[in-house]
Amino acid sequence: MARPVQEVNAGSMADIAFLLLIFFLVTTTIDTDKGIAIKLPPMPEENQPQNDIRIKERNVLKVLVNANDMLLVDGEPTDIKELKRMTKDFIDNPTKNPDLSESPQKAIVSLKNDRGTSYNLYIQVHNELKAAYNELRDARSRLLYGRALEQLPESRQNEIKDYYRQVISEAEPEG
């Protein structure tokens, strides 16, 4: 006489698996790409007339990154390590060079890249340009007030940031 085989009651297994699935879906977070945070200027008002703004060529520093990850500053091949120094010299123009900007308030950095440019170099270039502005602002803060920029009251920080306005114009990528 054969003994009856005992079975495991699996009637509620599907319910338990379903509840576990819901639990993990609810408690799991999904990472999203954040991109690069850039503060954009406000949109112009619709009724505002479009002025034809003329900018002197000497007040524009042209930074180009091509598809081969070559960095060109004003048409000359440049190493990424030199970009910050060149940008600071262009903006501040301590030697009053007629080829560099007239004043920090008129200086514009024009950044243009190719669609084939690597993200790594693009981010490096962006970081170097921002670092140039930050170093100029900090140096002015130390010169005028004897302290680092972040140690100053907000009104003084804004005064220095207005003196060295960060104007980086990014053109639409080509290629």
Structure keywords:
4 helices; 175 residues; single chain; elongated; Nucleotidyltransferase, domain 5; 37% helix; five-stranded mixed sheet; alpha/beta
Overview of this structure, please?
The chain has a domain of 81 residues: Nucleotidyltransferase, domain 5 (2-Layer Sandwich). Helix 2 packs across helix 3. Helix content is 37%, strand content 11%. 13% of the residues are buried. It has a five-stranded mixed β-sheet with strand order 3-2-1-4-5, with helices on one face. It is α/β, with parallel strands linked by helices and 175 residues long.
Topology:
Elements: H1 13-27, E1 60-65, E2 71-73, E3 76-77, H2 80-92, E4 108-113, H3 119-145, H4 154-163, E5 168-170
Parallel strand pairs: 1-4, 4-5
Antiparallel strand pairs: 1-2, 2-3
Helix pairs in contact: 2-3
